[in-house]
Amino acid sequence: MSSNTNSLSALALQKFKNNFWGVFSFWLIVAIGLISVFAYAIAPDNSQYANQMHLSIHSKQPGFKVQMLSIPSTIKNEQNFLEALFFGRKNTDTEIPISSYSKQGESLTYTEYASDGLQGVQKTIDLTNVSEEKLNTLISTKTFLFGTDKYGRDLLSRILVGARISFFIGFVAVFISLLIGVFMGSLAGYFGGKVDAFIMWIINVTWSIPTLLLVIAITLALGKGFWQVFIAVGLTMWVEVARVVRGQIISAKEMQYVTAAKALGFTDFRIITKHILPNIMAPVIVISAANFAAAILIESGLSFLGIGAQPPMASWGAMIKDHYNYIILGKPYLALIPGLCIMILVMAFMLIGNALRDALDVKS
């Protein structure tokens, strides 16, 4: 029996490998997952939430370059390597975009950057204790590959850091929906009767409420924030899992191996967890992939409405909200880039869901 199970698993894996778009989507999701985990290691702006603002260079086009003067802070930054790697660097230095500078003796005179042909303010700082080598490190040319947003923040860095929210909300929401959905669906399908009627009543009531409205209500009850959105989205997605699990268990509990397990005196808990659930996980896996995509879209919608991840936290939905009016102002990329990122990630999960459905279909 074990070899048969292994052969079926190997067959499903082989069918999945033969699906080009499924494999491509899988590696794309892995790549986005790695980017979301190590976003601060690869982002040009590795400050917390990539929130380094320079209002003088707001809304600049992709590829924009400017000289940046960094003035060291006297405040000591006590932050270990791992904290900076996973949560961003606490930037205490002052960064100033400049258009020109000149060193005169022990002082540095610079002209602040000003757009639209305006003349920037000239200022002077003391360089008594600053060597020539140190001066070269203080002034550098910074390139914004995706341009800057309306606050002068690096758009590429915000995109990379924002991937973390959109990616991890899928994991948290799907985990919560599986935890509740499998439990409720198992009870309803296996025991039937009044238990099934009561759980189906809860499912139908939850199903009748618009998903976005229910998420908004839960978010308002729990408060605005990062984890509150994760929990709220997960609590609204369990009904689909429960309905699928219930239907599968109703069919599976009439099978001979379940009757044999009951005859051997196994407990209901063991029969459900050890015998039935492992045999009905294929459709649950497929619906989980679809729920990943749905969770990302719901979070983006909530952030667009302003009740998702709160500033200064980077979120693709919030970035669209901040810049959707720029579409008619000649700078559509500010809203289109995060929109394309959402579309690509959602499409990847939908394609991998389709590939898993085909691979796990025993009839094909």
Automatic annotation (TrEMBL):
Keywords: Cell membrane, Membrane, Transmembrane, Transmembrane helix, Transport. The keyword Transmembrane applies. Residues 163-353 form the ABC transmembrane type-1 domain. This is ABC transporter permease. It comes from Lacinutrix gracilariae. The chain crosses the membrane at residues 20-43, 165-191, 198-220, 280-298, 333-356. Belongs to the binding-protein-dependent transport system permease family. The keyword Transport applies. Pfam families: BPD_transp_1. InterPro entries: BP-dependent_transpt_permease, MetI-like, MetI-like_sf. SUPFAM superfamilies: MetI-like.
